[in-house]
Amino acid sequence: MRTVMRKPVLAGILTVLGGVFLGAGVASADVTSDRPASILVWPKLIFSSQSDDVLSASGDSIDTTIQLSNVSNEEVRMRCFYVNANSHCTNEPSRVCGNHADCNLTFQGGFCEPGWLEIDFEITLTPYQPLVWNLGSGMPSLPCDDAPCSPGGVAGTFSNVGNIPPANEDPFMGELKCIQVGPNNEPIDRNDVKGEATIVHLKPSESQSIDARGYNAIGIQAIEGANDGDNTLRIGEEYNACPSVLILDHFFDDAIEPINGDQVKTHLTVVPCSQDFELQAPFPTTIQMLVFNEFEQRFSSSRSVTCFQEFELCSLGTARDRPFNAPGYDDPNYESCRRSVFSAYVSGTLTGQTRLRGVDDGSDERGNGLLAVAEEFHRPGDDDDDVTATFSSAAFNIHQTGTRETLDFMRLP
Question: Which of 57, 270, 377, 407 pairs with 285 at a CA distance of 20 to 30 A?
């Protein structure tokens, strides 16, 4: 069995570039991925028992291991919301699709329509308790739900309440948001939780190799004394504001990584800070992007996102995705990718930096703040003589700067 857990090569390469692009004295965003918070966001969760996507062969499987931890010596109650972001065919509603072509395999005339379905659950965590579960199986019973636990160093006994449902579809693609609440389910101003996610890709097609990539949940911290306890969470007033700008250091797509000679591409998953879990009403946000190459030449692009969106970087400039598993890049979308500002053929350098900002549309009902996580995928170059070499990947949190002046709103049922 071959296990790959790759660290992004780019992190070291862009250390010097960070000083060029970011400059001195840049303000930090109030949203964090390395400290306990009150709201946790896992931007990308994926499950497929028989995966057949752009990075997999038929028979492979993907699941996401999710960890939620209480770092305090008190019991913590959480309200959590999966967002199922699968698209479905209009002519076959049970078929999950990635594009319109997927909907014409059996019956002609179908379209691939996006959908966003919320699945909620409530749980308690005992003092200092971590909970770990797989998206595909959930956690039907929690560790201390039938026999009270006595955490070390904490007086008294505590019990878990609730359960964690599995993904409601196979395949499943979406996000998870969890909010810390009080005993009556009212939001409170405590910051006691943190989280992680690891996407595990099992590949029987490649001699049982395993590829794993992980990232930290994004935490939004509550402001002490500011929470009024109602079901409308004002992010930027009751909670720290979402970042003004997201900063992604990346290889340009199809660049050749200089150490191992791998060909590289990057995926970006974007979710909104504002979300209406009560009405389950999605809304579009326009992302404005400034792209810099290593010579500090600047390109620009924009793209609309709704509720949850995963992009291959080069599709941000062309609105078209392409598979990455076609030897020789014989896919018809490959040429369109070469014309993207995110392609190494256009940028003229291996690496660069992209700054992303949600455009404020002036709405009183919501803000347009964004959160994101990135994934870096490597495949061996055409001249690689290692017959065991295979796709490998890494996931990582991206940098943030500034705070948004417009409030974001999260509405709970």
Answer: 377
